[in-house]
Specification:
It is a single chain. The protein contains one helix and two strands; from the N terminus they run αββ. It is of the alpha+beta class and 64 residues long. A two-stranded antiparallel sheet has the order 1-2. 8% of the residues are buried.
């Protein structure tokens, strides 16, 4: 099982791809995402074999 110290940071290029795909909006509530209030959520958890690829990530409001 991966520990948080084993986890790699999501590259900024991948974050930008996720934001473009979602048109800058939260995948859950649809509100426009604000810098400093964005959480990148893994669809398949890293601990379960998920990756940091854009296809496995969604951008959410950090404070819903």
């Amino acid at each position: 099982m991966a520990h948080s110290s084993d986890r790699k940071a999501i590259p900024n290029k991948v974050k930008a791809l996720v934001m473009l795909r979602q048109d800058g909006k939260c995948r859950i509530c649809g509100e426009k995402l604000r810098i400093g209030n964005i959480d990148y959520d893994h669809i398949v958890a890293v601990a379960l074999g998920g990756t940091n690829e854009a296809s496995n990530l969604r951008a959410l409001c950090a404070d819903p």
